Amino acid sequence: MIAHHVLFWLKTDTTDDKKQAFRKGLESLQGIEVVRTIHVGTPAPIERAVVDTTYTFSLVLLFDDLAAHDVYQVHPIHKAFLDEFRVYFDKVVIYDAQ
User: Which of 44, 56, 69, 82 could pair with 10 in a Cys bridge, judged by C-beta atoms 3.0 to 4.6 Å apart?
Assistant: First the structure.
């Protein structure tokens, strides 16, 4: 199992409509056949020194194995998401775990 966790910091001038479109774009990644589980979220209202709540959106995808992750990376739906929405974010941090 591979967990692919992506944190997005959208540009400060991103409108609510653009945020809604971005979220729908993230949710469209569920259409990729190798994605076993998807979770799209925003920071939970948890205040602890070790919790980072500065990001705008969180994406967690679970894949069966590294080969499935590699298929996802070059999949047309993933590429279309990046082509359309990469202009929205200032920063992305990715954590991959097995």
Answer: 56
Question: What are the residue boundaries of the structural domains of the chain, listed by start?
Answer: 26-41+62-89
- Global pTM reads 0.94
Contact between residue 31 and residue 38 where contact means Cβ atoms under 8 Å apart: no
- Give me 47's structure tokens: 């205040």
Name the token pair of 54: 């500065």
Strand partners, 19: none
Q: pLDDT under 50 in the chain at which residues?
A: none
Alpha-helical regions (H) of 4-52:
16-28
Query: Alpha carbon of 84 to those of 2, 36, 72: distances in Å?
Result: 26, 24, 17
